[in-house]
Design a protein that fits this description.
It is built from 3 helices and no strands. The chain is mostly helical. It folds into 2 domains: 1-34; 37-71.
C-alpha cells in the first residue's frame, strides 16, 4: 500500500518539475521569436508622446531594454 502512495508522490513531483521546465523552455523560445518591443514600435511610441526620436536615442533605449532582459 505505501509503495503505491510513494510512487504516486514521486510521479507527481516529477510531473510538476517536468511541466515547469517544458513551460519555461516554450516561453523563452516564444519571447525570442516574438520580442515584446522593437525599434519601430519604440519610434512610434516616442512620436505619440510628442518626442522626435533620433536613432541614437532609440539605440540607447533598445540597448537598455536588452540589458535589462539579460541578453
Amino acid at each position: 500500500m505505501w509503495q503505491i502512495v510513494l510512487t504516486a508522490v514521486i510521479a507527481l513531483l516529477a510531473g510538476t518539475a517536468l511541466g515547469f521546465f517544458i513551460a519555461r523552455k516554450y516561453m523563452m523560445n516564444y519571447l525570442k521569436k516574438n520580442p515584446p518591443i522593437n525599434e519601430q514600435m519604440l519610434r512610434m511610441m516616442m512620436m505619440q508622446m510628442g518626442m522626435k526620436p533620433s536613432q541614437k536615442k532609440i539605440n540607447q533605449m533598445m540597448s537598455a531594454m536588452n540589458k535589462q532582459q539579460g541578453k
